[in-house]
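Worked example 3. Consider a protein that binds FE2/S2 (inorganic) cluster.
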Amino acid sequence: MSEAFDLLVDQPFFKGMTEDQIRVVAETATPVSYREGEFIFFEGGKADSCFLILDGGVALGLEKPGHGPTAILTLHAGDLLGWSWLYPPYRWSYNAHIHVDTKAIRFDGPRLKEAADADPVLGYELMKRFTDMLVKRMQSIRIQLLDVYSTPR
Amino acid sequence: MHPVPCRVHSVVRELEDTFTLELDPPGDGWEFAPGQFTMLYAFGIGEVPISISGDPSDSSRIVQTIRAVGPVTDALTAVSPGDFVGVRGPYGTSWPTGSAEGRDLLIITGGIGLAPLRPAILEVLDHRDRYDNITLLYGARSPGELLFAEELQEWRGRFDLEVLITVDRGDQVWRGPVGVVTSLIGRASFDPESAVAFVCGPEIMMRFTIQELLSRGFTDDRLHISMERNMKCGIGLCGHCQLGPFFVCKDGPIFRCSEMGDTCWTREV
Ligand SMILES: Cc1cc2nc3c(=O)[nH]c(=O)nc-3n(C[C@H](O)[C@H](O)[C@H](O)COP(=O)(O)OP(=O)(O)OC[C@H]3O[C@@H](n4cnc5c(N)ncnc54)[C@H](O)[C@@H]3O)c2cc1C
Ligand code: FES
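Given these inputs, the predicted complex is written out as structure tokens:
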């Protein structure tokens, strides 16, 4: 059994998938770790992977002119980072900055896509999980934009 | 039914527009249950409902935390020690701390919503051995707008209370979570099959939180929320605070979600 499989099998993100399916996904996965202050990727860079965070914290942000890096959202254990590898033009839309030392699993985007194309049942399982994450993230950002804690004047 | 004049003992500025008043209670003492509110009267201006934010075990003062948003709250936050304000109450239902005994308790709040929950937090910490894990999840607009920042810091230092804080907008020095308060739920330690949750904040934040808790296996009979509606009498007579079949002043402000049914999802009017 690979190290990646052992790490993935207990992750809530893969709950409901069969061991065979997780094994296929694990073949595209590599454990990675980052130190506080490092960047995993930069806005505009080529997006060819995604990450499942096992421990630590990553801030997604943008460079605000005159203000330096501004965090829009932080991701933590159990969160999936990155979907730009799924859709053209395959470029990151944010910077991913390590807030605290982080351990994660990196998935090779093109290989994951190949596996999903070859097995549509696996592809559907993965897409369900990606869309759930996308919807939740979009709802969260909508509430952040509403500025619900501002003074109603 | 008439407001009783109470002397302002002290005024503490918590945030740019938010102040905590300590009032001398009428008579010898003052008792309330966590989550209850008073009708506070700024003489000659008007009367508004304000939750009690003090320690329920301290009967020597009435403590209320007020954000200035309009004429009455402007007047109430402009008072000085020695001035008088009118008080009616305490009114309304309370956080059912007893229902969480022997279980995990999740307290989820945002912005000024921490004020109505503060008495419940102080009460459960006072009887810490009666509860399993207690977790406070708090969302604020920015790192500079954390209510009761010093006390939050103190609570974070305790080993028997997990405190997670997130902000909608970080700044150059903030190293904590950025995002909505629901994003913290996955990091809290609780058993969704038996835990109890108290939720207080803007209605949209509460609805979002309820959805997230239900999707994690909570049942709505263990979810309690605090609702706000404009009030006049505060005691169930005028109908001003009606919310579906309920009067928020008398049947609430603290409701069990299962008792509210679809009213829980009714947009603020
Ligand atoms: C049970 C209960 C407990 C409350 N506890 C507190 C508390 O502890 N601290 C506190 O600062 N406030 C609390 N409020 C809200 C407070 O009563 C209102 O802010 C107040 O009535 C506003 O009166 P005003 O004359 O100053 O402003 P208004 O002129 O009445 O309102 C000014 C602006 O504030 C908005 N507003 C009014 N009420 C609310 C509300 N409830 N929520 C969001 N926006 C509102 C109005 O839409 C308007 O835009 C509570 C309300 C209820 C029902
Ligand atoms: S304020 Fe009059 S019934 Fe509630």
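Take a moment to read the result before moving on. The two ends of chain A are 60 Å apart (CA to CA). The CA atoms of residues 91 and 102 of chain A lie 23 Å apart.
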